[in-house]
């Protein structure tokens, strides 16, 4: 009999600031478990989390949900996108707002949010602005400030956007990670919509600047920082600095892995993730 | 390392590589590679390293230069490079500055897939 994964994908209509968004999400795991929403990296989509969605250990205690932000993957842009007067730029306010609008629309009660890269950075904003609405934050490849990535070259009439977005991030993955998974991640990046990776990086490199603010987080929500040693966009040193400034946090540096740990080397990443999830389960009891 | 003999072996690795034959179809550019004090201008033509020279003079033209200490390139060339040395961008990111890019960067962005694939062949030398 053919192997069929436990992942099921659906569409949900989410209203945020007067606009309706048709958002795609996938889920697997324990429907009565702790809800955990997984946020993809810039320019790509929820496919990055497929290994965690299919992991039996994770699925036992968690309802694992991976979303596609509007304009990403199977989540279409708002209908008027082609008439917008400005090119797409993701902002912290919109990003955190649409995430929480999704959790409300799906009826999730104080979910765990796990995000990588920009998905990790937004965890700091969620900790500040939505501390009563989330139970824990897993900030993967996250730091207070990650400059240098909002580049015009990523959306340019003379440059192949798909290949350049994918190739420009390939080196963020560790050489130890299996080739098949690194090139699968490359493939996801090559399929982003025009200008979407660049637009997301507006948040990543400009709108996200938590320097001087991290210390003001109350510590009500635990933050688990996890960063791979090959990440040159958010180095271990940058994450350690953020963690030092964060009350009620833990910092985990992952060896022989890079910026896309969940998709480039799921076996290694999941080994680092399991103890974090065990702590979250224990805290929930 | 990074002498003419090494460059000849790298040239062969690029020119006999299967995927490079289609990845590099549109890669025609002249690139200066600076390995510390040693510099070569590499002439890519339709994805092949057609020629290279270390005899740089007033008539040597190139569009793009990638310069890094020889030690940085040596780490890049390891079979399993250490963190921050496994990729051109890892070395060139402004936060780290281990590799300097000069010239027409559009050439790099237009040919990144093929060029980086060619540079990765250095690990086969």
Q: Specify the overall morphology of chain B.
A: globular
What percent of residues of chain A adopt helix (DSSP H or I)? 25-40%
What percent strand of chain A?
15-25%
| Assembly context of the chains | heterodimer
Distance between the termini of chain A: 38 Å
> Which descriptor suits the 3D outline of chain A?
globular
CATH C-level category of chain A = Alpha Beta
Strand order, biggest sheet of chain A?
1-2-4-3-5-6-7-8
Order of helices and strands of chain A: EEEHHEHEHEHHHEHEHH
Largest chain-chain contact? A-B, 22 and 20 residues
State the total count of DSSP E strands of chain B.
5
Number of strands of chain A: 8
Major sheet size, sense and barrel closure of chain B = 5 strands, mixed
Mean pLDDT of chain A: 97
Summarize the amount of helix of chain B as a percent range.
25-40%
Q: Output the helix-strand order of chain B.
A: HHEEEEHHEHH
Biggest sheet architecture of chain A: 8 strands, mixed
Low-confidence stretches of chain A: none
CATH superfamily (homologous) name of chain A: Alpha/Beta hydrolase fold, catalytic domain
Question: What's the alpha carbon Rg of chain B, rounded to whole Å?
Answer: 13 Å
Commentary on this structure:
Chain A has 285 residues and is an alpha/beta fold. Chain A is 36% helix and 19% strand. Chain A has 10 helices and 8 strands. In chain A, strands 1-2-4-3-5-6-7-8 form an 8-stranded mixed sheet, with helices on both faces. In chain A, helix 5 (161-170) runs antiparallel to helix 6 (179-190). Chain B has helices spanning 4-15, 20-23, 70-76, 88-92, 105-110, 112-120; strands spanning 29-35, 38-45, 48-53, 64-68, 100-103. The chains are: A alpha/beta (285), B alpha+beta (125). Chain A binds chain B through residues 147-148, 153, 156, 158-160, 163-164, 167-168, 170-172, 174-176, 229-230, 232-233, 235, and chain B through 80-81, 83-84, 86-90, 93-96, 105-106, 109-110, 112-113, 116.
């Amino acid at each position: 009999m053919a192997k069929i994964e436990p992942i099921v994908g659906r569409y949900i209509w989410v209203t945020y600031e007067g606009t309706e968004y048709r958002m795609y999400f996938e889920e697997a795991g324990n429907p009565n478990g702790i809800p955990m929403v997984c946020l993809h990296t810039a320019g790509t989509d929820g496919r990055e989390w497929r290994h965690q969605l299919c992991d039996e250990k994770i699925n036992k205690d968690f309802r694992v949900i991976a979303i596609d932000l509007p304009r990403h993957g199977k989540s279409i842009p708002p209908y008027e996108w082609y008439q917008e007067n400005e090119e797409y730029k993701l902002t912290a306010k919109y990003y955190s707002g649409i995430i929480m609008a999704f959790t409300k629309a799906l009826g999730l009660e104080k979910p765990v949010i796990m995000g990588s890269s920009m998905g990790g950075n937004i965890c700091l904003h969620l900790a500040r602005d939505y501390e009563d609405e989330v139970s824990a934050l897993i900030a993967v490849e996250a730091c207070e400030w990650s400059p240098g990535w909002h580049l015009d070259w990523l959306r340019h009439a003379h440059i192949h956007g798909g290949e350049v977005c994918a190739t420009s991030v390939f080196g963020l993955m560790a050489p130890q990670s299996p080739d098949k998974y690194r090139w699968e991640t490359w493939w996801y990046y090559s399929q982003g919509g025009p200008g979407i990776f660049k637009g997301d990086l507006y948040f990543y490199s400009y709108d996200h600047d938590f320097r001087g603010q991290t210390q003001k987080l109350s510590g009500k929500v635990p933050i688990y920082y996890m960063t791979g040693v090959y990440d040159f966009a958010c180095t271990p040193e940058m994450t350690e600095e953020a963690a030092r400034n964060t009350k009620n946090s833990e910092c985990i540096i992952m060896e022989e892995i890079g910026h896309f740990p969940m998709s480039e080397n799921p076996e290694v990443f999941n080994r680092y993730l399991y103890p974090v999830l065990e702590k979250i389960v224990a805290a929930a009891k | 390392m990074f002498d003419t003999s090494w460059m000849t072996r790298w040239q062969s690795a690029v020119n006999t590589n299967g995927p490079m034959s289609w990845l590099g179809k549109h890669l025609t550019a002249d690139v200066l590679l600076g390995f510390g004090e040693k510099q070569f201008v590499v002439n890519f033509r339709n994805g092949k390293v057609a020629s290279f020279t270390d005899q740089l003079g007033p008539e040597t033209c190139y569009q793009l230069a990638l310069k890094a200490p020889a030690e940085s390139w040596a780490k890049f060339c390891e079979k399993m490079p250490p963190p921050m040395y496994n990729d051109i961008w890892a070395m060139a990111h402004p936060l780290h500055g281990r590799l300097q890019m000069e010239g027409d960067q559009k050439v790099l962005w237009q040919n990144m897939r093929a060029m980086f694939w060619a540079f990765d062949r250095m690990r086969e030398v």
